[in-house]
Amino acid sequence: MRHPFQTVAALLAAMLLAACDPHEFPVNGSGDAGRDFSLTLSFADELPDYRRITPTKAGEEARMRYRVLLWRYANESAFGLDLDYSYSFERTDVAELDTTIYLPVDPAKYRLAAWVDWVGGDAGPGYDLSDPERIRLPEVYESGEHARDAFTVVTDYDVDGFYANGQTYQKTVVLRRPVAQLRIVAPEALTFLARTGLDPSQMRATLRYTSPLPDGYNILLGTTLGARSGVTLTGTPRYDTSGELVFLSDYVFLMDDASFSVEFTLTDLSGKEIIVWSGELPLRNSHATTLSFDTPYGGDDKPGGIGISPGFDDEIEVPID
Questions:
Q1: Which is deepest, 15, 131, 255, 299, by most CB within 10 Å?
Q2: Residue ranges of the domains in the chain?
Q3: pTM of the prediction?
Q4: Which of 1.10.10, 3.30.750, 2.60.40, 1.20.120 would CATH assign to domain 179-318?
Q5: 27, β-bridge pairs
Q6: Residue 170's pLDDT is what?
């Protein structure tokens, strides 16, 4: 699936701990064939179709943050504990997520890790990247449309002894999500709003996780870390371009299939309950679970269904008792 961003590709910033900056490819030639090695960051085909990126503050746009880390191998079977290179940059208004960069590194065998997430826009950074072996959620847990969508990969990158006149070593890696998505929606927005007599600005949605959530991720081991209890999200519902009314959307660190207990409440601004629901929701890594409500009534009435999407778009209906 391709990604219809508007076509402006710009490298906004570069911050690195290595000797020189990574640069976008191509750049008026083949680069430094003796030092610069080409890395293409590709994204899994089942990515969602991001139809829009809209700024929420004057002059501010959502941006994608890229970080590429390399540890040099100390011997054939183990890499060193010290980080040898760290490359960070951002892009905005990209035509596609896929990007190719030159990495100015010494010829050697490396363990390479890459992480990509969203910054700017309506929610700011969704993760603290100060420690790559413990990527953390912010202290204040807030929901955002794309703020905690993220992609990662770990692979070996062997350029030991590589020198070639006029050529660069090239490698392509595929990044995949370390998260699952949870969406709570009314599929027919206009019908739902007509029944309640309210517009989205007059509603307040609250989601409380009654199961602990992982709150860290080790980029090298590909495992979740820690747990955070009592996580609660609140927000104002919004229209989706597909015609749904999205009450809340969230992303959760997840390596394997799991179920989480949640309590969901929708009220008007005076606190009058419109929907009250609690239960177990199944989540799956790199999939979206959608909890849909077909009526505005809470209590014993049941929601329209729980769906798990294999590609963050099409729903698979799962009936609930």
A1: 255
A2: 10-175, 179-318
A3: 0.76
A4: 2.60.40
A5: none
A6: 83
